[in-house]
Amino acid sequence: MVDAPRRQPAHTVRLRPVGERELELQYRVVHGYRRAFRMAGEGPVLVLIHGIGDSSATWAELIPDLARTHTVIAPDLLGHGASGKPRADYSVAAYANGVRDLLTTLGIESATLVGHSLGGGVAMQFAYQFPERTERLVLVSAGGVGREVNPVLRLVSLPGAHLMLSALRLPGMRLQVGLAVRLLKFLDTDLGQDAPELLTLVDALPDETSRNAFIRTLRAVVDWRGQVVTMLDRCYLTEGMPTMLLWGDRDSVVPVRHAYGAREAMPGSRLEIFEGAGHFPFHSDPGRFVSLVEEFTGSTAPADWSREHWRDLLREGCSGDPAGLPGSGLRRPTERDLRQASERSAT
Q: Mind giving me the DSSP string for 161-190?
């Protein structure tokens, strides 16, 4: 059952218009690499983290509305968009470090993190590594819950992926891919719900450097068996962290059942399902998405982190279930849970 919407306390909000120049890409050089980002608005900080193969452009239509009441920062992760694409570490932990360093250069001490797909895993990793800098979590179709993932991503993680992705740039291939994607949408398949986004991801890999960065990122989180990282082993640490999960019920990339598993493993989390939406619920219904984020940030207090509480949670967790599923108030892990948790990476 999906949690009932929570009413936002009545208060006066000063709305601020956002200028077009604020939505343009800005740049910082961090550790010698260019980091691109969009920054607009003023007020409590929202950090929007995109998914694999995507960029901050995925949030462009939402930023003006969110920036009326928040300072919105949407980075292009390293290897994506207009950011540098070096031969580098593209792990989830490295991305969390990169978000921290960008925020530090911008003078931001803490923020609410909104992460989509891979970005959801990055947001969870950020909260784990830097709990004192994390006010809230909004996880959108997030990776890192279950092993399942779309077979296409598993295929691209295999040797030879460079050749396959390079073939997409051959003359006529863009047209054929477009026709295939439109057919998926016409047949009303779950994958077809994200047809425009699929074409955007193909266009986002125009050269070998971009493709190399994409494959390095993908292989850090997916192999031929599915997702290779998990956040379930540390979900109990979100106790006291306001957390909202947003998912499309027709998500063919990260199945919606992962949303229910994440809510079960994260104490006090809230779940909102977007009916008829695929992997990009914030594109399917941007108005509802913005309203939920604004209501959530306006009706919850930032997490009150303390070293003592963190230590207590770690000690209790260490003596609990080795599958990473908190034993208090939650189901006992099955043998399958235990086996799969031990096979997946706990960063």
A: HHHHHHHTTSTTHHHHHHHHHHHHHHTT-T
Query: What is the distance between the alpha carbons of residues 229 and 104, in angstroms, rounded to a whole number?
Result: 27
**279 catalytic per annotation:** yes
Residue 164: Cβ within 10 Å count: 13
Q: Output the furthest CA–CA distance in the chain (Å, rounded).
A: 60
H helix or E strand, kind and range, residue 151: helix 151-156
CA 310, CA 329: separation in Å to the nearest integer? 19
| Tokens describing residue 297 | 């940030």
Residue in 80, 116, 258, 279 annotated catalytic:
279
> One of 251, 283, 284, 321 is an active-site residue; which one?
251
CB 248 within 8 A of CB 280: yes
CB crowding 33-67: b at 16 or more within 10 Å, else e: eebbbbbbbebbbbbbbbbbbbbbbbbeebbbbbb
One digit per residue, pLDDT tens: the chain, 347 residues? 455 444 333 333 344 555 556 678 999 999 999 999 999 999 999 999 999 989 999 999 999 999 999 999 999 999 999 999 999 999 999 999 999 999 999 999 999 999 999 999 999 999 999 999 999 999 999 988 888 777 777 777 777 766 666 555 545 555 555 565 665 555 556 666 776 777 677 666 667 888 888 888 888 888 888 788 888 888 888 888 999 999 999 998 899 999 999 998 888 899 999 999 999 999 999 999 999 999 999 999 999 888 898 888 888 875 444 343 433 333 444 445 545 544 555 44
Q: Does the pTM of the predicted model rise above 0.70?
A: yes
Catalytic residue among 56, 83, 117, 141: 117
- Are 113 and 126 in contact, with CB atoms under 8 Å apart? yes
Candidates 28, 26, 90, 15; CA nearest to 56 is: 26
Alpha carbon distance 182, 163 (integer Å): 24
